[in-house]
Amino acid sequence: MVSGLVSVIIPTYKRPNMLGRAIDSVLEQSYSNIEVIVVDDNSDGDKYR
């Protein structure tokens, strides 16, 4: 059986610590066919990358 792809979209703005936790949470799931899309809402320069 082929499992469908699940897309997880994580919007973020100047919250690098929370972003790391959110990504880790997605990657820890038992379902393996996942793509993670992070949308940065114009954080200041490279400080938060």
From TrEMBL:
The Swiss-Prot or TrEMBL record annotates one GO molecular function as:
hexosyltransferase activity
Return any one Pfam family short name. Glycos_transf_2
Per the database record, which ranges form the Glycosyltransferase 2-like domain? 7-45
Look up keyword Cytoplasm and say if it applies: no
Q: Which UniProt keywords apply?
A: Transferase
Keyword Cell wall biogenesis/degradation found? no
Q: What is this protein called?
A: Glycosyl transferase 2 family protein
